Amino acid sequence: MPEPTSVIVPLRPAFIDERGSIQNLVDAPFTSVAMITCAKGSVRANHFHKTDYHYCWLASGEMDYYHRPAGSKTKAACERIKAGQLFYTPPMTEHTMHFLQDSVFFAFSRNNRETKNYEADIVRIPSLLA
Predict the structure, then answer these.
(1) In this structure, is residue 2 part of a structural domain?
(2) Which H or E run contains 109?
(3) Less crowded by CB within 10 Å, the N or C end of the chain?
(4) In angstroms, rounded to a whole number, what is the distance separating the alpha carbons of residues 6 and 11?
(5) What is the residue range of 66's domain?
(6) What is the number of domains present in the chain?
C-alpha cells in the first residue's frame, strides 16, 4: 500500500459472497494494533510521532481530527471522521482527536507500542482544537 496522500484513506471494495463480506483495511507494515474506546466529548492524542505512523479505522462514533505538520504555527486542518472511515497519520504530524460521540477506533501502528517505545517516539503538544 503506498503512503496515503490525504488524511482519509479510501477503502478497497469489499469481497462479498453468500457467506458475507471481507473488508481489507490496511496493507502496510505494522507491529501494533490497539482498540481504543473514547467517551463523547473526550480529547485524545495532542502529540506527534517522530518515526511512527498509524492508520486508524473508526468502528463506531464520530470525531473531528485536527492535524498539521510538526512545528507549524498555522491553524490546524480539521477532518470530520465518521464510522467506517480509515484515516492516516504520518510521522511528524501534530494531531488531536475530539470525539463527538462515544466512539471505538482501531489504531494500526508501525512501531511497537510498549510504553517505553511509545514514550520515546512521541512529542506532546497543546491541543489543536480550534
Answers:
(1) no
(2) strand 103-109
(3) C
(4) 13
(5) 8-124
(6) 1
Backbone angles phi, psi at 24, to 5 degrees: -75, 135
Evaluate whether residue 116 is within a structural domain.
yes
What whole-number distance in Å separates Cα of residue 94 and Cα of residue 102?
23
Q: Are 129 and 98 in contact (CB under 8 A)?
A: yes
Sheet bearing 122-124, strands edge to edge: 77-82, 62-69, 93-99, 43-49, 122-124
Asked whether the beta carbons of 53 and 2 are under 8 A apart, the reply is no
Q: What is the CATH number of the domain that holds 21?
A: 2.60.120.10
Considering the domain boundaries, does residue 69 fall inside one?
yes
Nine cell digits for residue 41: 466529548
Residue 105's closest CA among 42, 34, 5? 34
pLDDT of residue 2: 67
